[in-house]
Specification:
CATH topology of the largest domain in chain B: Immunoglobulin-like
Chains: A alpha+beta, B mainly beta, C alpha+beta
Oligomer: heterotrimer
Order of helices and strands of chain B: HHEEEEEEEEEEEEE
Shape of chain B: elongated
CATH class of the largest domain in chain B: Mainly Beta
Low-confidence stretches of chain C: 191-195
Structural class of chain C: alpha+beta
Distance between the termini of chain B: 77 Å
Strand content of chain B: 35-45%
Radius of gyration of chain C: 25 Å
Helix content of chain B: 10-25%
Number of helices of chain B: 2
Number of strands of chain B: 13
Structural class of chain B: mainly beta
Number of domains of chain B: 2
Number of helices of chain C: 1
Chain lengths: 193, 201, 195
């Protein structure tokens, strides 16, 4: 019915003006909505990426502890040397942290826990198994700590072994990344010689 | 009114033409998200995004001898075994290199064999920055797929937009019939290796 | 009044024409679909047959009562074994051969067979382009299950699409029953176990 009535009478003369107005409004809306849509579709991927990467370092002095992932992390020891079966020009390194548990829900807080070594050039080493070298007694890896059932206030000793080339050994610094804190990660100053 | 209709028709026609042109000329999804090849030759260090790889040696054999669960096994194939020794290093961060493919001269893709089970020197290779590591890739290939072949190495099997080292295997000695010049009757994977020369070429 | 009535009719006709055309085409397609489908042919045993990704040549079928090519059986079980030469017809290494053969008219505990390379009993290895390998399909059966002396296996193939409709990537789609193979089934009391 309405389709018939618009085609007749005085309304027809107003039509072009109204149409132009609406066209302009639509164009303006497009200019706003298009970037908004783009941002909205990118948002999830961007967030996922940020929460998966250790991008921004939070430096911690030696001897200091820092709250991270609901617990307090402190570098206990960093030592390197020749041990076990190693490639040429390489050293074994053991990094040890003392962690005071705050939030005991480690399976949520420490998901994707990563111990790393970084050097001055920004290269990163992940833990390696070295045949002939076993972890010192009482030392847990990050993953085994998650399932250790530690309670609030417990103090854990967490660490791992790494293989590092000779040219990096002078500048390596231990670092910790946790799923609940990414993109931030903790980077510790080396113990003074 | 007539002009307006005509104008609309022109706009419609040009939109159709433009859309069709875009559809025809645009690369397909598979090409857009394919791995990005990094070309190189044998004995050169090829720098991919997350790792460096140098192809040291290719050995052809009719049989492979290996130790599986404490048992000596001799593996046969309907073609040839190609044992590729590479030297691997991570560039910026510790990573794994899991995928090797032998690409024949016509583009046939032979993935690394799954018949050897888990071995320390077989993929996935865990590599660290600054530390060189010998890594094997073992393929089953027909002997007519050797001349003009190349080796594709990438961190993962499906790595869209990640780098893929593509090493030309032109340097392999083959006879006039395309057969490899030297085929061992048997290759022992557990035999101690002669140390590869130190330092990069 | 007359004008409005006419334009109304016009509108109805324009809107209705598309619907009518769609109904007509759908009816036609349905009619074709109802045509008697010709039955899948019997495939030859002495020559290789192209079945989608695979070129197949069945070799023999038998019932085994012991470990076959490294496939272990539970106590009281036997196994239907089909050995076939398989050649990868595609351009890349592949292991999508699980659905190629299926025995007809047998109650299977698990329709998914164990598949072993007869050379050394490797389970479900990838097969490489153009390289023919003999594979053993092993279906575990209950010990008392009756297996006919001549057994039919359905052969399933797929069609190649250079670009699929979603991503435009090449792939194999639309599995269909290519045909049937019929093999005598021997009963092997104690077959040679895989190396």
């Amino acid at each position: 019915m309405s389709a018939v009535s618009t085609a007749t009478g005085p309304i027809a003369s107003e039509d072009p003006r109204r149409e132009r107005k609406w066209r302009r409004r639509s164009l303006v809306a497009l200019a706003i909505l298009l970037p908004l849509t783009l941002a909205e579709t990118c948002y999830d991927s961007l967030r996922e990426w940020l929460h998966g990467e250790d991008l921004i370092a939070r430096d911690v002095d030696f001897g200091q502890s820092a709250p991270f992932g609901g617990s307090d992390w402190k570098l206990a020891d960093l030592r390197g040397g020749k041990a076990g079966r190693l490639p040429d020009h390489a050293f074994a390194v053991i990094a040890t942290f003392t962690v005071t548990i705050g939030d005991p829900n480690l399976q949520k807080q420490w998901l994707g826990c990563k111990l790393m070594l970084t050097d001055a050039a920004g290269r990163r080493w992940l833990p390696d198994f070295i045949s002939g070298v076993s972890l010192p007694a009482g030392l847990m890896t990050c993953t085994s700590a998650i399932f250790s059932g530690a309670k609030r206030g417990d103090v854990l000793t967490i660490g791992d072994t790494f293989i590092v080339p000779e040219d990096a050994i002078k500048t390596i610094r231990p670092a910790v990344g946790l799923g609940s804190e990414r993109p931030w990660y903790l980077r510790f100053q080396r113990p003074p010689k | 009114m007539r002009i307006r209709i005509l104008g609309n028709l022109v706009i419609l026609a040009s939109t159709v033409a433009l859309s069709y042109g875009m559809q025809v000329s645009k690369p397909h999804y598979a090409d857009l998200t394919a791995p990005i090849p990094v070309d190189g030759a044998m004995h050169d260090t090829v720098r991919a995004r997350s790792f460096d790889v140098r192809l040291d040696k290719v050995v052809f054999a009719r049989q492979l001898k290996t130790n599986q669960f404490g048992q000596e096994k001799s593996l046969t194939t309907s073609g040839l075994w190609a044992v590729v020794s590479t030297n691997l290093t991570a560039t910026a961060a510790s990573t794994t290199i899991a995928d090797g493919t032998w690409q024949g001269p016509t583009g046939l893709r032979y993935r690394q064999t799954e018949r050897l089970g888990y071995r320390q020197d077989m993929p996935p290779h865990g590599v660290d920055p600054g530390l060189e590591k010998r890594g094997l890739f073992v393929f089953e290939i027909p002997s007519d797929q050797i001349r003009g072949a190349s080796l594709l190495i990438s961190a993962r099997q499906f790595g869209p937009l990640d780098a893929q080292a593509r090493i030309s295997l032109d340097g392999l000695p083959t006879g006039a019939d395309g057969q490899p010049a030297d085929v061992l009757p048997q290759y022992d994977l557990d035999a101690p290796q002669a140390q590869p020369p130190q330092g990069k070429s | 009044m007359f004008r409005t009535a006419r334009s109304k009719v016009q509108t109805w006709i324009t809107a209705g024409a598309g619907t009518i055309a769609a109904l007509f085409v759908a009816g036609l397609m349905g009619a074709f679909g109802a045509l008697p489908a010709h039955t899948p042919p019997l495939l030859p045993l002495d020559t290789a047959t192209d079945a989608g990704r695979w070129r197949i040549r069945p070799v023999r079928a038998y019932v085994s009562h012991a470990r076959t090519y490294g496939v272990l059986l539970k106590p009281g079980q036997k196994a239907l074994v089909l050995e076939a030469d398989m050649t990868n017809r595609t351009a890349r290494s592949d292991k999508a051969y699980f659905d190629v053969f299926k025995p007809d008219g047998l109650a299977l505990a698990d329709p998914m067979p164990m598949i072993a390379l007869t050379r050394d009993g490797t389970l479900t290895p990838e097969l490489h382009p153009g390289m023919t390998e003999r594979m053993a399909y092993v279906w575990p059966l209950a010990g008392e299950a009756a297996v006919p002396a001549n057994l039919s296996f359905g052969v399933t193939a797929e069609i190649f699409k250079p670009r699929d409709n979603l991503y435009g990537t090449p792939g194999w789609f639309n599995p269909y029953r290519l045909g049937t193979i019929t093999l005598p089934v021997a009963d092997v009391p104690a077959p040679g176990t895989g190396p």
